[in-house]
Write a structure and sequence with these properties.
Elements lengths: L1 E4 L4 E4 L6 H7 L17 E6 L2 E3 L9 H5 L2 E3 L3 E3 L3 E4 L13 E12 L4 E8 L10 E5 L7 E4 L9 E7 L5 H7 L6 E8 L11 E7 L3 H13 L8 E7 L8 H4 L5 H4 E7 L11 E2 L6 H4 L7 E6 L2 H12 L9 E2 L5
Parallel strand pairs: 1-7, 14-15, 14-18, 15-16, 16-17, 18-19
Antiparallel strand pairs: 1-2, 3-5, 3-7, 4-6, 8-9, 8-13, 9-12, 10-11, 10-13
Length: 334
């Protein structure tokens, strides 16, 4: 089957149960997207000819108004015939690395905090991605793929590292936390637009919360491994609920050059739990002005974490912080 984007002359194949978004990205087509799992609504389309079915129906990315107009999400729409769709193209979303499906074996699991573990998978092909990107994991017994960011760097050894937080009632987390080395899953990637921009001359700020640590760790690793960024400085902020949730410093301090060009700050938001905590208390964005030595707009920002945290930081930076939108990088998740 093929999908044609009306008025553009763009046509691409869609096979093997792929959604329109995945097929487009595999073909190098610049369809806008962020989460690729139905949560953000960035990839809205309208089918003008042909038909498509939805991979899942419990997504939040479409409003009632969208549904009334017959709009679909490209990340959930699987064509069951040749289709012509109405969709916008954005050159900025053209994939620098085209995603592909691979098989990956769980090699090891280690604890980072009481509820975050690092899962290391290994594939027979090189792990090709940009620092800050994510992959879609297909887990046994879980009806839909789940998006998880890599915490390591691309490598020839086929190592894919994910730092994942266990959340109560989370079906994917329960499966992952029950896996043992040797088990195999399907992995699809890379995806995501919040990757490290190595050609930017500004210093870098990474702001993470919860398992948003993973992509920010990949960004930090990429920065200190980059020859073109050897003059750039890193400020790394981690927001946690309680002191026992704080993590990341030990990993960052192993990066060559971090002690000379990097800083780490952690804050906890649960005031009652912070009685024995000697660091900052409150939401992470509340401390940003007191930490940065230069105006916000002189930095490049990367964010990952709970939607409420990301939203608060976004409001601060784009509002009173006067940071241009193009200096703010994050992928929205539901």
């Amino acid at each position: 089957m093929h999908v044609t984007i009306a008025g553009s002359g763009v046509r691409f194949p869609c096979a093997g149960g792929d959604t329109m978004l995945r097929a487009a990205l595999r073909a190098g087509i610049a369809l806008p997207y962020e989460c690729s799992v139905g949560g953000c609504g960035t990839c809205k389309i309208e089918v003008q000819e042909g038909s498509a079915v939805m991979a899942r129906s419990d997504f939040a990315g479409l409003s009632d108004r969208d549904r009334g107009k017959g709009r679909l999400l490209a990340c959930q729409a699987v064509p069951d015939s040749d289709c012509t769709i109405k969709a916008r193209l954005d050159p900025a979303c053209e994939p620098r690395i085209r995603p592909c499906r691979i098989r990956a074996e769980l090699a090891s699991v280690s604890e980072l905090t009481h509820d975050i573990r690092e899962f290391r998978f290994r594939s027979e092909v090189p792990a090709v991605f940009l620092p800050g990107q994510y992959a879609l994991l297909r887990l046994p017994g879980v009806p839909a793929d789940r998006a998880y960011s890599m915490s390591n760097l691309p490598n020839e050894q086929g190592e894919w590292h994910f730092q994942i937080r266990r959340t109560p009632g989370g079906a994917a987390g329960e499966v992952l936390f029950g896996m043992r080395p040797g088990q195999v899953i399907d992995l699809d990637g890379p995806y995501g637009m919040a990757y490290l921009r190595e050609d930017v001359p500004r210093d870098v700020v990474c702001i993470a919360g919860g398992s948003g640590l993973a992509p920010m760790m990949s960004i930090a690793r990429g920065m200190f491994a980059s020859e073109s960024m050897r003059e750039r400085r890193l400020t790394f902020l981690y927001g946690a609920r309680t002191p026992q949730d704080v993590c990341g410093r030990e990993i960052l301090e192993t990066l060559p050059g971090f002690h000379q060009r990097g800083r780490y700050f952690a804050s906890v938001s649960d005031c009652m739990a912070a009685e024995t905590w000697r660091g900052a208390v409150g939401y992470v964005h509340e401390h940003l002005a007191g930490i940065l030595d230069a105006p916000f707009a002189e930095h490049e920002f990367y964010l990952a974490g709970p939607p409420a945290m990301v939203g608060a930081v976004e409001d601060l930076l784009l509002g009173p912080g006067e940071v241009p939108q193009e200096q703010l990088h994050f992928d929205r998740y539901c």
